[in-house]
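Lab notes, practical 5.
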Amino acid sequence: MAGLELLYSSVAGSITCPQDVIVCFVHWEIVKSGYKCLGLGDEPRSGDKKSELLPTGWNGSKELYTLRYKSNDDKSIFLVKAITVDSTLIFNLMDSATEQVSDLTMNVSDYVDADHLQTFESVFKNAEDLSQKVKSQLLPSVPAPRKEDKRSREKSDNSQPDSDPLRIPTRHPQTSRQPNWPDPMAPFAAGGADLDPFSGRGGGMIVDPLRAGYPRSGFDPSGGLPGILPPGAVPPGARFDPFGPVGRHRPGPDPDHMPPPGYDDMFM
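Output from the prediction step:
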């Protein structure tokens, strides 16, 4: 239990009862977990300073011990109280950030030899059991401060996905083999040929019979349609969908010239 002897030696002159011994031991376990003591009492004080040592006057009251702790990374603060009830010592720990509470109750005589309060080698009984009890019952709610040294940070920064020699590289399909799909986030991706008819892309619902790929030699809608539209009725270059056949005469019979046989038959 490295460090406990030095801590105990620094306060041995002020230890006057078995409860002091247990509070000193719990303080040591908290310091080992990555915390330092700020001072006495429930509220912060102007002279608070983080220290691994117990503050002056820490055992001024044998019925109630109150100590405050702060993590080494300054992200966690909690309050520890120890209450003496007959031969029992009850610890209560509250994390001020999360308001999580844990407690520990123990029989002082099970862990302290009251006849050797000033002798470190003889004062503790069942020290390993006491340490396990403090860690499992009082300190589980205490978040362990994150420890990250310079070497681990550099290793993390220099670690790249392709630096592992055993890593199987990701297979990327050849760009030339990928279909030329339109970008799904483009503003005219859906119905683009209709929304932007001048984009040059194929498809769409807008059909110009005069520009559908069929030969229309010599026909200019701006010159008018004989017997239908006078010249100049269609502006030059305008898009025009004729409402009738181009030219006055169509080859073959007119299907609308005569009604079919039985035209007046309602069951036809």
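Observations recorded by the TA: Strands lie at 35-40, 64-71, 77-85, 88-95, 101-107. The chain has six helices and five strands.
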